[in-house]
Design brief:
The complex is a heterodimer of chains A (328) and B (254). Chain A is mainly alpha-helical and 328 residues long. Chain A has one domain: Orthogonal Bundle (ABC transporter involved in vitamin B12 uptake, BtuC), CATH 1.10.3470.10. Helix content of chain A is 75%, strand content 0%. Chain A has eleven helices and no strands. The longest helix of chain A has 42 residues. Chain B is an alpha/beta fold. Chain B has one domain: P-loop containing nucleotide triphosphate hydrolases (Rossmann fold, 3-Layer(aba) Sandwich). Helix content of chain B is 31%, strand content 28%. In chain B, α4 crosses α5 and α5 packs parallel to α6. Chain B is globular, with a radius of gyration of 18 Å. The termini of chain B are far apart. The chains are: A mainly alpha (328), B alpha/beta (254). At the A-B interface, α7 and α8 of A face β5 of B.
Chain lengths: 328, 254
């Protein structure tokens, strides 16, 4: 089956996923959150985070008062497993800035959705697609370095997000939520949707991993072998963009960016082979989420910040070790 | 791996017809007219920034022509491309064998992965270029010459019609340069594959190539090596006095 057919199937899959998201989003009473009235796993602070576009489904209502912690773990594991793997490409291609910029651009899309009253996820996906299109091809004049053109859109998206949030009905509290994220306030249905889409992205990477690696390492070689490098790059960026958009919606910019960067960096130091790093990166990401949530529960710390700290704690010994090894 | 030891009759693989090569609508080199035969051994020589890479990218089809036509009389060609070493980012933790296996991807197509037999073919290619024992070493940990050999193995495993080498002697000492040139000679004869080399060092290729294309300040001269390697010819082309000496069949420029 050729690339175009697979690409079309993937696009179709994304389109088919759209109603799943939409069913939770339509008629969301943004000004009057319904969450606190539900005997739900959602913690009280969820009521203060009406940026969440997903309305709880009946299946989201459970009786276990600690269920929100399990939901946080499930959501964190789903995000960590995929984003940490995708992070190998983000780090190796030196496009960390693109990853962070896509996260910010998706946030601006969420803000637009909040302002105009449509499902924020659509805004995130639309903005992400725009960002992926911009970043997957060289459009700026040659005198403008690629990272500068990415930086322009990063700052523009951040400013746009601030402006849109300031004008939205829910005000600036959303901005803090968007920036810090809230892994403790994820509905089970959100996690399930994320898991399904992420499984599809994982399948795409399992099928086309060698193509993504080839165009990432040597675009010219890929072209001489008959590959349309620009299309493969677009597909790779699209998978990263979709993962980033959905992750931000659930766990926030900070945790998403961390999972894209830190576990992959650690894995490259821990296991200097691509295939082994591809196993270690998700394990490190999932481990950081599990340990971080446990520590946040023990010490009553903000979960996302603790997970970031644990991720760095995994990375730090390898940084020190390799720094000494290089000097020796 | 293609091993055609018998001589094949000369056949034109690629023909440049008054091609202008450049970026967008800006031509860097104009009036490029030459052809490459199936048994050709061609060197394109020019200083940094002269337009060698632009020419090679046009030849590989990575850049559209600004004007003129590139013809493929025998149909589409398989190129075996050996890029400049610095164009590969060594942050990717890939072994020499994994790098060579990438040369198989074009013929495999999407969805398929190299089989055991194809992996053995990649191993054989590494053996052929003399670094079979380094298959599990990280590419970034190899020496400059070993990296070039791995990249030549990657290009060969794709069974190319034309082997294209971009500054393959850069950053090599004199012995490394000679060893790599000897390997390219061997590959050219053993596989009966056309070779196109791009270099800034005329001395490095003068005793190997059959045809030489000289690039200088937008001028492109293409001629047999016997024509180019003449004192008068080089002095006129470069505008400075040059002498070509031949000692025991080896040409040297002073």
């Amino acid at each position: 089956m050729n690339f175009r057919r697979w690409f079309s199937l993937f696009s179709l899959f994304l389109l088919l996923c759209a109603p799943i998201f939409a069913q939770n989003i339509e008629d969301l009473p943004l000004d009057d959150p319904v969450v606190p009235t539900l005997p739900s796993p959602v913690p009280p602070e969820r009521a203060e985070h009406p940026h969440h576009d997903a309305e709880p489904l009946a299946s989201d209502v459970v009786s276990d008062p600690n269920a929100f912690l399990w939901q946080a773990l499930y959501a964190g594991v789903v995000v960590a497993a995929l984003c940490s793997y995708l992070g190998l490409f983000v780090v190796a291609r030196r496009m960390v800035f693109i990853g962070v910029a896509l996260a910010e651009i998706s946030s601006a899309g969420i803000a637009l959705g909040l302002l105009l009253g449509f499902a924020p996820l659509w805004g995130a996906l639309a903005f992400m697609l725009l960002g992926v299109t911009l970043f997957s091809r060289r459009w700026a004049p040659r005198r403008v370095p690629p990272d500068a053109s990415i930086g322009v859109f990063y700052t523009l998206a951040t400013a746009l997000g601030i402006l849109l949030i300031a004008k939205s009905a829910q005000g600036e509290s959303h901005m803090l939520t968007l920036l810090r994220g809230d892994v403790l306030a994820v509905y089970p249905s959100e996690t399930l949707q994320m898991a399904l889409v992420f499984a599809a992205i994982g399948l795409i990477h399992w099928l086309f991993g060698k193509e993504f690696l080839l165009v990432s390492l040597d675009r010219d070689m890929a072209s001489t072998l008959g590959y349309n490098a620009a299309r493969w790059d677009f597909l790779l960026f699209l998978t990263i963009g979709v993962a980033v958009s959905l992750s931000i919606r659930s766990v926030g910019v900070l945790l998403t960016a961390t999972m894209l960067i830190v576990p992959a960096s650690t894995a490259f130091l821990l296991a200097p082979r691509w295939n082994r790093a591809a196993i270690f990166a998700p394990l490190l990401g999932v481990g950081a989420v599990a340990i971080g949530l446990w520590l946040s529960l023990l010490g009553d710390f903000p979960a996302s910040a603790v997970i970031v700290a644990v991720s760095f704690a995994f990375l730090a010994p390898f940084l020190v070790w390799h720094s000494f090894a290089r000097r020796a | 791996m293609k091993e055609v030891l018998a001589e094949k009759p000369a056949e034109t693989l690629l023909r440049f017809h008054n091609v202008a090569a450049g970026y967008g609508k800006t031509a860097i080199l104009e009036n490029l007219s030459f052809s490459i035969e199936n048994d050709d051994y061609l060197a394109i020589v020019g200083s940094n920034g002269a337009g060698k890479t632009t020419l090679i990218r046009t030849l590989l089809g990575l850049l559209p022509t600004v004007a003129g036509q590139v013809e493929f009389p025998r149909g589409a060609l398989h190129f075996g491309y050996v890029p400049q070493l610095q164009s590969l980012d060594e942050i990717f933790p890939l072994t020499a064998l994994e790098i060579v296996k990438m040369g198989l991807f074009g013929r495999l197509g999407a969805l398929k992965r190299p089989t055991r037999a194809e992996t053995d073919k990649a191993r054989a290619s590494l053996e052929e270029v003399g670094i079979g024992e380094l298959e599990n070493h990280l590419f970034r940990e190899l020496s400059g010459g070993q990296k070039q050999r791995a990249l030549i193995a990657r290009a060969l495993v794709a069974e190319p019609d034309v082997l294209v080498l971009d500054e393959h002697t850069n950053n090599l000492d004199i012995s490394g340069e000679k060893a790599i040139m000897a390997l390219v000679d061997e590959v050219h004869h053993k596989h009966n594959v056309a070779v196109v080399m791009v270099t800034h060092s005329l001395g490095a290729v003068a005793n190997h190539a059959k045809h030489i294309g000289l690039i200088q300040q937008g001028r492109f001269d293409f001629a047999p090596v016997e024509t180019v390697m003449q004192s008068d010819y080089l002095s006129e082309f470069y505008g400075v006095p040059m002498r070509v000496l031949e000692v025991e069949g080896v040409r040297a420029i002073v």
